[in-house]
Every structure is written in structure tokens, then in C-alpha cells.
Amino acid sequence: MAIHRIGIALVACLSLLSCLTAAGEGLLPSVRSRLPERAVVRPPGVPDDVALEASGAVIGEVRLVRVNVFDPTIPDENIPLFRFINRIHIVSRESTIATQLLFRPGDRYEASAMRESERRLRSNGYLADALIRPVAYADGKVDVEVVTQDTWTLKPQLGFGRKGGSNTTSVGLEEQNFLGFGSRLAFTYEQNVDRETRTLEYKDANLTADHWQLAAQVADNSDGAKQALSAERPFYALDTRWATGVSLRNEKRIDSVYDLGEIVERFKTHEREATAYGGWSAGVHDGWVTRWTGGLTFDERHAADVEDATTPAPQLPADRRLVYPWIGVELVQDDFREERNFNLIGRVEDLALGWQAKLRLGLATQALGSDRDAWVFDGSASKGFGWNGAHTTLLNAAANGRVEKGALADAVFSVAARHYWRQTSRNTLFTGLSLDHGVNLDVDKQLTLGGDNGLRGYPLRYRTGQSRWLFTLEERVFTDWYPFRLFSVGAAAFFDMGGVAGSSLVTAPPPPEPPRKVLRDIGVGLRLGNMRSALGNVVHIDVAHPLDGDPSISRIQVIIQGKRTF
To answer: What are the φ and ψ backbone dihedral angles of 476, each rounded to 5 degrees?
Structure first.
């Protein structure tokens, strides 16, 4: 009976999506914020990349073309309102763009440096797109044009979101391209299920021409406070030879332990963390990069009862003090592919298909000030596969935790697979499966499953345990509807199924009715791609219906949230 209901619902959803696709046809020629036509085709007389590299050509002039939020060369964008927005927007400065390029006048021409520079520029939220191409060639010199288009980056924030039956509200002001320098300055107030937070943040990813970055955060919360500071010169490009940095964090908060979507324990947490590191690499060789890092980390946590609690927490997390040197290695394969209408709507996406793997291993000892002897490990790996243009599979795995007295402690092992079947240029069937397994988790670490992390028909943090799994099947539609040249529109019909195993609770009373081991939901959603703003790429509006769970769950769950992907 349940399968029958699922089939009927999915057929109805797919019919609705087909109507939406048809309705979008012909409204506008493109859902993409287009760059000027001069940036699309290589001019006559300019050899292709292979010929330029073989001839030993060097870069001559580097021309920067910076397009505003709206492009007045497009008739639909040359209207009074859009011209006014352009006038009050500060376009990214030439120095902001130039410092991110991986080539300079006089360098040998390398197509790989052009493509990686494009990816670096597009990774910034304040740029909608970036395109680099040779525009002239003479006497062994090739002139290069760099075309970028800004997004609107000043956001008076008045937000509302809903997921898992709980609301989130926020008020604030955020600027992601302060005075055109590419730095982020934000003041926000947010109220969510955990706490009220007032936060002041600053981040400058282009602090100097040598690619130093600075980030600072101060938060005053209803249940504590947070201060964080980091200064770093990262491996900013594949061929970067060295990196170094330091980070500090001090945070006090009240943590909650959940079961069936309800808080069953609360306790105060005070965490302090500091890390300093340095790194070295030999650069790119045959499309591969190996990076070595080493550093020192201080990690301390203390837990205590909440003063106004009616009863003390049954079991507080054990205090932790770890001081450990560590060494890390990272392997990166230079294999990227440009996509559109993949995880975003309309925008160009840089999809990493090559191997990306890293491992960090540290040794905490009492001789260095730790409260125990332990090995600390943290690693991840990912790989993508493209199959005949229509199918793409992305795989990733991760592991982190400790080894104490010969046994794993607070360890989590994760694997995930995502498959994209591009049925047409506007329709994609997405399939996702993720599994997380915890071993001897600390009391304050829960693996949760609910409306806030993929099981959309249920309250947030509805189930908790030592292990969890989630399967998602989603038919995605990318329409050509581009209302007011501000939003691109998509839609989805989905089926989620997941479960947990092993209780993460030590003393919680058993529920009156044991929850089902497998939970399922179906639903439909609207997607609004935010083409012009640097903040929140895709707005999700989902309506989900749970097929299992206890009778207290609402039969209709509404989820409204901004996400980075479809």
C-alpha cells in the first residue's frame, strides 16, 4: 500500500514538473547572466592553445573587463531600475581581480593557468562568472582578456526559514565585496532552534598580493559567546609551493541532546582550540600535486550542568585536553569539467572529477600537556566519473577520530555516492546515498537524521544514533523561466528514505512507541536560483509528506531555506 501511494504521488509530481518545463520555454533565451558577446569567440588570427604553447608564446597585455551586476549591452537589462542598481554598486576593483590571476605579463602562455584562474575567480561569491581568452597575437606575444561579472553583494538581511518543523529568523547587514576589495563584512542577528546569536564577521581573502587571508568573528549568544581569528597563506593554486597559517577559537554555548526531535539533555560546553601549521609542495607534475603539511594543535573542551536546569544532565561529556603535533599529506589531480544546470541553476560550475585525498595524523601525549595519550586522525578522499556525457558519478569518503588505549574513540566513518543522469538539457535524475558510522562517540556527538539534514518529511534531529544512512531520489527540472532577470526557476519531485542504528543516548527513557527503523517521505519543491546576489545561491521551498514516524508528526512538512546547491 505504501509503495502504491509513493508511485501515485511521484507520477503526479512528475506531471506537474513537465507542465513547469513547458511553461518556461520561450520566455527568455537563457537563464544565465550572460557576459558580453566579445568574450565568447576567439578572434581571427589567434592560434589555439596547443599552437600557442608549442610556439613558446608569452603573455603581453592583460586586459580586465569588469561587467557590473546588470549588463547594459543586453536590452532587457538596460532599464532605469537596473541602471540605478549599477550606479550604486561598487564594481570589483582591478587589483581585486588581478591578484587572483595565476599569470602575469611576460609569463609563458599556459592554457591550464587560464582555466585555473577562471575557477579561482568563479569561486568567489561576488562574481557571477569569469572568462579568460587570448584576444590578439603578434611577434610571439599574446594579449589576454579577463572578463568578470559582479553580483549584488550588499544584503540587508531580513530572513525566514523553516525546516524540520522549526523556524529560523535573521536580521542583519552583510557585504561580501566591501568597497570592491573582495572582503566580507557582516553583522547578523539570528534566532534558531538552538540559540539567539549576534555576530560580527570580517574576512579578507586578498589581504596582500602574496595571497594572505585574514578572518575574524565575534559572536554574543543567548547561551554564551564565540571569538575566532585566523591568518593564513594557503595553497591557493595547484602550483603553490608553500603555505602557512594560524587559527584561534574560544567558544561557550549550551549543547542539546535530541531524541525523536525533542531535547532530552542540555549541558554547557566551553571549547578552546588553536592550530599553527606550515606546508610545502613541489607543484604540479604530470597533472598531479602532492602537498606536505605539519603543525601543532591545542584542543580543549569542558562540560558542566546548566544552572537553571530542573535536573542535572544524566551524563556529562568527559572533559578533553589534547596537545599534539601532526603531519599531513594531500594529493590533488588536475581534472575539472565545466558544467551548467548541475548543482546550480544557470551558473557555470567547476566540477572536480580528479582524485582529491588528504590525511592528517597527530600524536597527543601527556608529556606535551594532554590529559591522555592518543592518536588523532582526520582524512578524506573524493573522485568523480563522467560517463558518455549523460551520466556523472561523484564518490567521497571521510574518517576522523582518535585511537586511545588501542581502541577507537569518538570516530566517525562516512561514505557517499551521488549520481546525476542528465536525461535532457533541462531534466536530471539525481540519486544519492550516504552512510555514517560512529564508534564510541563522545556524549556530545550525535549522528542525527531529520528535516535539517535530508529527511525532509520529519522534524529536525528526529532520530539519533551511532550510525545513519540516507537515500534520496530526486527528479530535477531546470526551466528557462527567468523572472525580472533576477531569478532562475527550477523544480523537483523527491523521495527520501533513511534510518539510524544504535542509540546515542545513555539514560533517556524509552519512547512510548518504538520508532520505525526505516523512515520515508515524498514531496515536491520549487527552486529559485539567485543569479544576481552573492548570498544564497538557491532558495528551496519544499513540501514533504512523511510516510512513517509516530502519530505526533505533522503530515505536511514545509521547508524553506537558502542553500548553496540545488
So the answer is: -110, 140
